[in-house]
Amino acid sequence: MKPEPEDEPPQAQEQLEAKPRRLYQAWKGNNIFLCGGRLIFGPDAASLLLTTFLIIAPTIIFCYQMKSKFHHSSSTGQQHMHRAALVIVIITTIMDLVFLFMTSARDPGIMPRNTRAPPEADELLLGSNTPSMDWSDGRTPRMRFRRPKDVIVNGFTVKVKFCETCLRYRPPRSSHCSICNNCVHKFDHHCPWVGQCIGLRNYRYFFLFIATSTFLCIFVFVFAWLSVYSQMEDNGGSMWMALRKEAYSFALIIYTSIVVWFVGGLTVFHLYLISTNQTTYENFRYHYDKKDNPYRKRIAANFAEVFFTKIPPPMANIRSWVGEGALEAGFYTPYIGLDVTTPREKIDLERENKEVLVGGVQIPTVLQNIDYGSFEDSSEDKNRIEGEKTVHFPSAWAQGNEGAGTSATATTACNDETSEDDLNEIDSPNIASTQASSEANTEPPGQTDRMEEALERKNQRSNTI
Prior knowledge:
Residues 161-285 form the Palmitoyltransferase DHHC domain. One of its GO terms (molecular function) is protein-cysteine S-palmitoyltransferase activity. Its EC number is 2.3.1.225. 48% of the residues lie in helices and 11% in strands. By secondary structure, it is mainly α. The chain starts with 9 loop residues before the first helix and ends with a helix. The model is unreliable at 128-138, 324-359 and 364-443 (pLDDT under 50).
């Protein structure tokens, strides 16, 4: 008789209930996936709503103004001009929104992650001290990092670094985006206005988006001034009266004059980057203006590389099926479970942790570090200790308080009533801590009792002082 699913062991039930997942469902980055992983957005994709509003709102105002002027125009030439301006603005706005969507909803060039470091990465390890982990004793452990590799690009040596998050060596011109938590091929920057990284696969659309936005701003700005100028002619050349009657045009002039400085300046800057075959990240970090750029070609070839080459397919197949547990969540830190202390450091730690012994009795570390110089003797105490014998503490304790400013009266004064046995115990020579502890364990019971009594009497007299 076949057992029912309820009678099966828990592991078998979990395997039956476990459903296969796609890669985007187990992806460890911060991306937002829609339409089954076909659309990829950044974690700040909500900024697209603001960007879309900043594009559509002035366009609607401009179209409303052109439509009203079209109906009130007396000449046919003005009607044709207003109609052409209306059509151009609508087409440009649609193109601008399409380029914005293609930039923000497209895979920018995300590189796949590894579940473990490749073998060649473990062969290139570098030991260094890092303050990222502090132990209780104030020491920093010795961590191990993977060294960068040298790659030859067009006759130039380029260093490629290992990404500890993605567990892979990043190809040249790649970088890890801290916002999206992904390595992106030919990383340019992360744009908060489009809510996505700008990389190899969407840089073309990003440039077309900012270039179209610049053209739209300039076009609206010019036609708004033309409307104000025509109104000035109808009102005897009064600028103030023309601006009052053309309130929408005045608002568009102010808005476009502000926005064009941002998108226009960004367009000019990226024209320069394309002509020199740089990315924003490379321009700010490597300063190729001051040294050779291994990727630079002729200006025509640089533009052709951006606009007329085929966009490569995605490196990470986000919609592919993965096994259960193929990608574990969480940040991977290598060698975190290994003992990162060298043998010599272990010996130093053991020496530092040993207790100072006085007469076979361990002295706590807190008592060793007390600044006895802060205690001052009163006049009564000074009269009281006149004629007393001077007894030195063991050198081990003295050395422990050497840098703490130990007072001579506090560390050398003892009572006259101290017996010879007590003095012999206290004036014992300086010995290693391990030898003292072993001898204390082998001493007869009677001698240990005498030592404890002598120490108690000494502590009582010290308290009275």
